[in-house]
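FAQ: What does the model actually see?

It sees only this:
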Amino acid sequence: MQVSVEKTSELSRKITVTLPEEKISEQVESRLQSLSHKVKIDGFRPGKVPQAVVRKRYGQQVREEVVSDLIQSSFYDAVRDEKLNPAGMPEIKANKMDEGEGLEYEASFEIMPEFVVMPIETLEVKQFTSAVADADVDGMIDRLREQRKTFESQDRASAKGDRIVIAFEGTMDGENFTNGRVDDFPVEIGGGQMIPGFEDQLMGAKAGDHLAFDIEFPKEYPGEKLAGKSGHFEIDVARVEATVLPVIDADFARSFGIETGDVDELKSDIRSNMQREMERALKARTKGVVMDQLFDRNTIALPGSLIKDELRELVKPYRESAKKRKQTIDEEVLREQLEPMAKRRVALALILGKLIDAHSVKVDPQKVRLAVEDLAASYEDADEVVRWYYGDSSRLKDIENMVLEDQLVELVLDKAKTTQEPIDFKTLMAAASGSAPGLS
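And it is asked to produce this:
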């Protein structure tokens, strides 16, 4: 076998492989000989088919199979001998493969980049700290009260925060777009349920009032026929209802599982839950900073094939979601938008892989178990969830990868220059709800 290697770009390689006809014909003859003992051809007893008949009937097919197998095996032999590390499958172009010519083909592919990770001792990482204040607990209780609110009819004009029950219909250019009249439709004034400006028109209305007004739909409104256009609404007010929040008492506490009805116990329980969420958010935020540092401080040439593969995975959920909604998406535009994320994920995967090898990091089974139990704790049958994860290695692999990332973050924090930075609970949780840690 003869092999020549051409460097076509920083990461692109083209190898030309030549194999003599003898190597092909030997394997073809061997396979035909084996085949002659197995094939059944009319007019011949099993195992007694002449070699010439077998060659005439199956020779071309067998040669194609041999050539295909030789391309695969010789390619891997070639990259091994030339100490090349392909980043993806090669693109094969056959130059010679007809009988009597031997085999010559070109394989074009990208190789994995060679790089040295910036010493983690040089990284500067902010570790965030926070605390759950009494005001944060009170704010959570207010949100819980809001979730349990009720409404009482009022004989007065509506105000912000009230719920107003209406019957309405909308038209545009004389055509109804609400499928006729909609009855008993509740709208909370200030809740942001309707298009901008709609709820403002309901302020000061009383039961029995009839309202008529025009409102322009937002340009980004999901309904194409209405987006950016003006609609006319005719509204009849059925009733005005005031918000009634539950009293923070024993009944309120019991409604959240506090059997004693002790409000202080409820607050303590809420604080504990908030602290758990805070710890998760702090861990995620610090992890994000570590990943940012690793990404920013290590410049790597990235194989386009890996970016393409990552983009395919990133686009997949958008495609599936659009399919469920029976909508179409512009995948080309979506790929352009997601490309920076794909590059970041590919780069970080390569960097983390180098760190794992350099520091001999092994996933800690005990930490994996704790991570699984933590995930399972929010389910009614936690033990069943734990068994589900451990019942399939592919499911557990995702947890192991997450734990391995966490262990690498701990390694970085142990060796890098770290500074403590406080962040208030509200800001921390607001940021946590809008982003995810890790490679993204």
